[in-house]
Specification:
Helix content: over 70%
Strand content: under 5%
Structural class: mainly alpha
Distance between the termini: 32 Å
Number of helices: 3
Order of helices and strands: HHH
Number of strands: 0
Radius of gyration: 16 Å
Length: 73
């Protein structure tokens, strides 16, 4: 996702507009927020602070899942 974050900005804006037209502003905010997140990631590439935080989050999540699976066996 990181190298293609720029592509998701427009997608999320389109979804936000679609949802806003049908359900109102309240329901559209989540996709608008996702668009801002992807913009932030794009500006942080290749290894800015936000990208480093996201990479650490993914590694921590993988470790937690792995440990959870090992504990269940």
């Amino acid at each position: 996702m990181l190298p293609k974050a720029y592509r998701w900005v427009g997608e999320m804006e389109e979804i936000s507009s679609f949802v806003r037209d049908r359900l109102g502003d309240g329901e559209a905010h989540i996709h608008h927020g996702f668009a801002r997140l992807y913009e932030r990631v794009e500006k942080s590439l290749p290894e800015g602070d936000d990208v480093q935080v996201l990479r650490k989050f993914v590694e921590d999540a993988k470790k937690t899942i792995r440990e959870s699976r090992e504990g269940a066996q």
